[in-house]
Amino acid sequence: MNKVLNIFKEKWYLLVISLVISIPMIFMGMMGIWIIGMLTQSIIAGVLISSLVATYIITLPLNSICGHIDNLIGKGIAIKVRVIIYISYYIVFGSILFMLGVRR
Asked: In terms of domain of life, where is this protein from (predicted)?
């Protein structure tokens, strides 16, 4: 676990990049909900599609961190880290986008 923390210390800029990318992605997600919601008459479809796109783009820098973890320790831990990151992003983005979608 110590090796994993060292990777995050070395590659902190990738986390910053993914956070910087995520801010415009939230606004794009809002627009996505609005447009897809208008097309499909469904808020949930808009939330799902826009959160899928957002999480894919945000996790690209995080995937390289997971790649470094893979090389050091082995495949098992990095997959767990990746799954935790994906699930947390889905919960956070899903809830934010859903609340914004419900308000409209």
From this structure: Bacteria
Residue ranges of domains in the chain: 2-103
Residue with tokens 């995520």: 22
Lookup result for tokens 């799902």:
48
Percent of the chain topping pLDDT 90:
0
DSSP 3-state of 104:
coil
The pLDDT of residue 59: 65
Query: What one-character-per-residue DSSP string does 28-82 give?
Result: HHHHHHHHHHHHHS-HHHHHHHHHHHHHHHHHHHHHHHHHHHHHHT-HHHHHHHH
pLDDT tens digits, residue range 56-80?
Answer: 666 666 666 666 666 666 666 666 6
What is the C-alpha to C-alpha distance for residues 87 and 82, in angstroms, rounded to an integer? 9
